[in-house]
What does this fold into?
Amino acid sequence: MPSPTGSSILSKPAPRFASIGSPYFGIMLAVMAVVLILSNIGASKGVVLGPIITDGGFFLFPLAYILGDVLSEVYGFKVARKAIITSFALSVFASLCYWIIIVLPGFNDDYGTAKQAAIEGALGPVPLIVLASLLAFLAGQTINSWILVKMKARTGEKTLWARLMGSSVVGEFVDTLIFCSIAASVIGITDAGSFANYVLVGFVYKTAVEFLFVPVTVLVVGWIKKREPSYGAA
It folds into this structure.
């Protein structure tokens, strides 16, 4: 009997991914960047919904992770990492623009003074929120994408739902813990109980939203795969 070595062993086929030549990647990258910038502005406001403590960006941020899942599944880890870095470069640029807007001299009348105070109150904390988001999103989204692609290498095109859910749990936990640790003081959270509430609610909410939208994400992934001419050739 021949030894099962060398060419007699069938190697597992490499996972399929698409190149970024089509317009779909650019559209998703633009949406991810806009969602992230808006989330950073919203996160500077603390929000209390009964016993729940969160921030004003809570309803937007999960969308960024869903888009990250789609990019990772269709285009691979390297492309997803470029999208993450690009989104944050644009977010940092937006923060710089806010700072310039704040320091520019305005009108000295009562309306101008009130407008200046309002802009400082709304956009002044954003650089700290951007720092929190930068560290959290880079860590969480990178881990999320890495786990998803590693799982795809094992399962191929099967069990997409398991890849989406498994990677989201780890990525969202890392993201939420890092972000809340920095952003809590910015929005006025100072005691341990409120901080634990902030972290727990953020993690459970964002993970639950991603789980709820898994069927939609699966449909979007399938739709893009069918329309990407290069899927499987990259």
In short: Residues 126-155 form the longest helix (30 residues). The first strand starts at residue 46 and ends at 49. The mean pLDDT is 84.
